[in-house]
Amino acid sequence: MRIHIATTRPVGEKCKEWAKACGAELVSPEECEVYISILSSEILRPDFLAKHRAYNFHPAILPEYGGSPVYTMVLINKEKESGVTLHEMDEGIDTGATIKIETFPLTENDTAETVREKSEELIYKMFQRWFFPIIDNTYRRVYRKKELDILKDLTPVVKALTLEGKEPAYWINSKGEKVFVKYQ
């Protein structure tokens, strides 16, 4: 498996060395089959994502703390914990499907620097635990309650299928009958 690990931090270089020691073939992004981002700010093009599996080790809990000033924001918001999110990469920024979130406690003595250190330590441990499931594509993604809440709200579907002269949205009851739902 040809892998590209994009990084701008020493922890990413440490992950590269570990991967090489495990026999990974590290190549350029153009040559890779699997792309792994470790604290990299590269934004991948849709055509690249269509051809490659791509993953990101994000240094905070998603979706609450996307973007880059996460070490600062968890402290400003007086959070009790922070963490690392491993997720699939999609066309958005820090929006792909979550694979795993691991957390660590924050203390009253933490600074943005200590939060970064804790995050990077956890990234390295998670990289080691998740490297082979990612490469082998054998991981199972995590579904969050928020995703279920979004699925429960059928309003957009019902509205989109409410059109005079057309069959509206429906569900099938236990008797096999269609029960129609129209937006009113």
CATH architecture descriptor text of the largest domain: 3-Layer(aba) Sandwich
Chain-averaged pLDDT? 93
Q: Give the CATH class of the largest domain.
A: Alpha Beta
Shape: globular
Q: How far is it from the N-terminal to the C-terminal residue, by CA?
A: 54 Å
**Number of H- or I-type helical stretches:** 6
- Taken together, the total number of domains comes to 2
Let me know the number of strands. Answer: 8
Q: Order of strands across the biggest sheet?
A: 2-1-3-4-5-6
Described by strand count, sense and barrel closure, the largest sheet is: 6 strands, mixed
Name the helicity range: 25-40%
Overall description:
By secondary structure, this protein is of the alpha/beta class. 35% of the residues lie in helices and 23% in strands. It folds into two domains: 2-136, Formyl transferase, N-terminal domain (Rossmann fold, 3-Layer(aba) Sandwich), CATH 3.40.50; 153-181, no CATH class. The chain contains six helices and eight strands, in the order E-H-E-E-H-E-H-E-E-H-H-H-E-E. The protein has a six-stranded mixed β-sheet with strand order 2-1-3-4-5-6.
Label this structure with key terms.
184 residues, alpha/beta, two-stranded antiparallel sheet
Summarize the structure.
The chain is an alpha/beta fold and 184 residues long. Helix content is 35%, strand content 23%. Helix 1 (10-21) packs parallel to helix 4 (112-136).
